[in-house]
Amino acid sequence: MTDEQWALVEPLLPPPWVGPKGGRREKHPPRRIVDAISYVVRTGCSWRQLPRDFAP
Q1: What percent of the chain has pLDDT over 90?
Q2: How do the domains of the chain map onto residue ranges?
Q3: Which end of the chain has fewer CB atoms surrounding its CB within 10 Å, N or C?
Q4: Does the pLDDT at position 50 exceed 90?
Q5: Ramachandran angles phi, psi of 22, nearest 5°
Protein backbone atom coordinates (compact mmCIF):
# COMPACT_ATOMS: atom_id res chain seq x y z
CA MET A 1 0.00 0.00 0.00
CA THR A 2 1.41 3.36 -0.96
CA ASP A 3 1.57 6.31 1.43
CA GLU A 4 -1.16 8.06 -0.56
CA GLN A 5 -3.48 5.05 -0.24
CA TRP A 6 -2.73 4.74 3.46
CA ALA A 7 -3.58 8.42 3.95
CA LEU A 8 -7.06 7.66 2.61
CA VAL A 9 -7.59 4.46 4.64
CA GLU A 10 -6.15 5.44 8.02
CA PRO A 11 -8.91 7.91 9.03
CA LEU A 12 -11.51 5.19 8.42
CA LEU A 13 -10.03 2.83 11.03
CA PRO A 14 -11.26 3.02 14.63
CA PRO A 15 -8.87 4.40 17.23
CA PRO A 16 -7.13 1.94 19.56
CA TRP A 17 -9.40 0.78 22.37
CA VAL A 18 -8.63 2.30 25.74
CA GLY A 19 -10.53 1.05 28.76
CA PRO A 20 -11.06 2.79 32.10
CA LYS A 21 -7.68 1.55 33.33
CA GLY A 22 -5.94 2.25 30.06
CA GLY A 23 -5.25 -0.22 27.32
CA ARG A 24 -2.49 -2.34 26.03
CA ARG A 25 -0.33 -1.42 23.10
CA GLU A 26 -1.34 -2.73 19.73
CA LYS A 27 0.45 -5.95 18.90
CA HIS A 28 0.77 -5.15 15.19
CA PRO A 29 0.62 -1.82 13.37
CA PRO A 30 -2.72 -1.26 11.63
CA ARG A 31 -1.03 -0.61 8.29
CA ARG A 32 0.53 -4.08 8.29
CA ILE A 33 -2.84 -5.65 9.06
CA VAL A 34 -4.52 -3.75 6.22
CA ASP A 35 -1.68 -4.81 3.91
CA ALA A 36 -2.24 -8.47 4.87
CA ILE A 37 -6.00 -8.20 4.31
CA SER A 38 -5.53 -6.63 0.89
CA TYR A 39 -3.01 -9.34 -0.03
CA VAL A 40 -5.51 -12.08 0.85
CA VAL A 41 -8.27 -10.33 -1.12
CA ARG A 42 -6.02 -9.70 -4.11
CA THR A 43 -4.45 -13.17 -4.35
CA GLY A 44 -7.27 -15.33 -3.01
CA CYS A 45 -4.88 -17.23 -0.72
CA SER A 46 -5.89 -18.41 2.74
CA TRP A 47 -4.69 -16.74 5.94
CA ARG A 48 -2.34 -19.64 6.59
CA GLN A 49 -0.62 -19.07 3.24
CA LEU A 50 0.35 -15.48 4.00
CA PRO A 51 4.08 -14.86 3.55
CA ARG A 52 6.01 -14.26 6.75
CA ASP A 53 6.47 -10.60 5.73
CA PHE A 54 2.96 -9.85 6.99
CA ALA A 55 1.71 -9.71 10.55
CA PRO A 56 0.69 -13.17 11.84
Answers
A1: 34
A2: 3-49
A3: C
A4: no
A5: 100, -170
